[in-house]
Fold:
Amino acid sequence: MRHYFLLFSLLISLPILAQKNETHFIDSNKKSISHYGNDSDWYVKNIPFFEISDKEIEDVYYYRWEVYKAHLRNIGDYGYVVTEFLNAMSWDHKPYNTLNAATVFHIYEGRWLKDRLYLTNYIDFMYQHGGNNRRYTESIADATYANYLINQDKDFITKQLPSMMKIDSDWQDHYDASKKLYFVEPVMDATENTISSIDASGGTDGFTGGDGFRPSINSYMYANALAISKIALLKGDNETADKYNRKGLEQKQNFQDKLWNPTLGHFTDRFKVNNEFVKYWDFIRGRELVGFVPWVYNLPDDNEKYNSAWLRLRSPEHFGGAYGLRTVEPSYQYYMKQYRFGPNGAKECQWNGPSWPYQTTQVLLGMANLLNNYNQNEITKKDYWEILKQYANQHYKNGKLNILENYYPDEKGAIADFDQRSEHYNHSEFNDLIITGLCGIRPAEGNKLEINPLVENNLTYFCLENVRYHGQNLTILYDKNGNHYKKGKGLSVYLDGKMVVKPSVLGKKIINLSKSKNIDQPSKGELNLAVNIREKDFPKVASSNSDTKDLNKLNDGRIWYFDNVRNYYENKIFAEKENWIEIDFGTEKEFYKTVLSFVKGKDEKFIDQTCSIAILEKNGQWKKVANSNKLIANTQNDIVFDKVKSSKIRFYFESKTTESVLKIGEIEVY
Structure:
């Protein structure tokens, strides 16, 4: 019988072969090892590599890809989804643990991964398998179209159209026909304890209630309508395209006419609720950061009246906190008043002032659009850089990279900081802001690409390398003095390894793309036979250890290597004893490969282990099919063997020490 052992992480010790049509200004192999260690190979294959003369920005960029990978969850039949919290929350979409409020950011960020498998599965889940359960407001159709602008896969996106239209229609239950605007309860907008909900409670609460006509939901519905229109055009359905285009334009006009607050000079909520404290259709009494969301979608007209709202963004008296953007201005009566508490009196999530990565992301997206698409003097590239830096600095907890839920805007530190919940929180963007904002790739329809880095002379160099765009490799190189890369002074652009923009001063560049003949296809997805996200029935996990705590973590579809959030089973290995873990499929399955992931903390030693794999034959005997003499921690260990059929698979572990503990993060079977 033929046995062979494949270990992805062994590849990191080998030189990366020069790929056709790529540039190699960054040693991606070396940089990946420095950030990801044994797990380097996945990132080499998947992410655009980036370096910059600002170390903090660069470190956060690579950290955020690690966060993204940690939130990829294999749910079995539907492949991969992206989660918001690493662990399950009581309010997420069971049993998948997805939250549609975060999906927009997941798609915008994940569209830059080179393997399209993850987003293909995730978008299909949202539209084909009920993943978008409308628990929260969203602009997922718009994000899906933004993903299409990168990969140009017309067949994939047009397949989603019927579901997009159905969900858009369902949102009419939040439409007030008399005002021709959408309304929502702030908690359903993922923003509990806002001005409208607090004031509607008479200042006593605000977690629920306070239904209002909000800038957010009306911007999202506008963006989704235009996206549906464009997707219908791709399908050749001109009637639907025209219908949704008219709907979007009407939404834009109603929004500007009715949600611009002339007294405050800002887009603000108007109350839908009517009670003893607040009156229907009155404007709320303060400005909120959500008023900048319309610019995420280029919704407002380009005029001084609307653009002037941005003058308050950085003002210390308004939204410009010393350590983060405030969600509400400090003049509000209940600014930063704490209404909700977690275990042991810990402060919980609110939107009456705290700084949220979620909305900071939206502001930076809006700023990039303002700087690229509007004639205005309120915001500069320097502003973009300084808010991006402020945001990057929020990623550190006790000197270590760890993005949390929300932060104090007027002092350093996190507010919602709960063990096993808040760490490495995935409800925002960062890397998409680097790619489309700082480095300036502006995805668009057609074969002309605009590149406009939001960079001034504060940086001496940066390189964003081999970004997949329209089936081609795009590299942006900036070298202020020409001393770092030695390719000339200024900004240059490479397409498929060839220079298409010679070194020149910073500014807007237009590149003519050749029409790509091939669409990047996702890798072949395989069904993980071992995964069980419901924690009942089959597949079942058993162990020779008597301790069954956390056994379900072995096949829950989650893999990460952060040592401060537990996701592993501690398997005790005893000398001269049979130590095994078993997966019972419940019925006979055919498979040829297992993937084992082990977890090792930064200061822990990984004990040398051997693993042999056996299957249960029909005669009740165990038959060995493979063996590995070398296992590596904090990456995937692939063990491949001749295809077999069985209802059970067993993993036998042996250690060279008398007694040891093996932290097993996940077992997969294909």
